[in-house]
Amino acid sequence: MHENFFVKKGNISETSNYCNVFDIKGKENKRAKELCNNLVQFLKEIAVKPAGEERNNLCSYLPYWLYDEIWGIHSDRKKNIEHIPFVKDLIDAGNNARSKIPNNKCSRLPYYSHINLDKWKKRKISYIYFKKYNEIEGMINAPKKDNCNNHYKYLNNIASLYKSYNQSNCT
């Protein structure tokens, strides 16, 4: 989702000090700093988008993109966010930048200390499913049935995720 927008930039010139926290002795983390710089760049790019559905969708997807990127950096995905050293600094840096970027309309980045990265991944999958529900339904009901197997596998994966959430939260 939004693959064309959320493309990590390899060489972002550091135009701000938002991500310098990752240069402090004891907090050095090159990958977190790169992610932070990309996050700030995306916030700036979203802020210059015209008001409307695209900007709103980018803002609402941003936390899912961010936690998915953290998921790619940190290998222990069962650990709660509060136990991953760089996450709080990353979220704080992003929120600090967000509050100072002119015309920013994105909400604060969430920091739920009691949630682990696997749960964030599941939330992202659920978010994408609900955002693309009508598109998926249209493909399933299309006269051409070229991708039926792919849709069937996808829906089965979503169904198991739904059952898991339903059992743990609704019983």
Give a quick rundown of the structure.
This protein is mostly helical. It has six helices and no strands. It has two domains: 1-116, no CATH class; 132-171.
Give a written overview of the molecule.
The protein is an all-alpha fold. It has 2 domains: 1-116, no CATH class; 132-171. Helices cover 58% and strands 0% of the residues. It has helices at 30-47, 53-73, 85-100, 117-131, 133-140, 148-169. α1 (30-47) runs parallel beside α3 (85-100). It is globular and about 55 Å long. 21% of the residues are buried.
Global geometry? globular
Whole-number count of domains: 2
Residue stretches low in confidence (pLDDT < 50, at least 5 long) are none
Fraction of residues in helices?
55-70%
Between the first and last Cα atoms, what is the distance in angstroms? 31 Å
Biggest sheet architecture:
none
Beta-strand percent range = under 5%
Run of helices and strands? HHHHHH
Counting helices, strands and paired strands, the structural category is: mainly alpha
Could you give the count of β-strands? 0
Number of helices: 6
| Oligomer status | single chain
Tell me, rounded to a whole number, the average pLDDT.
86
Radius of gyration: 18 Å
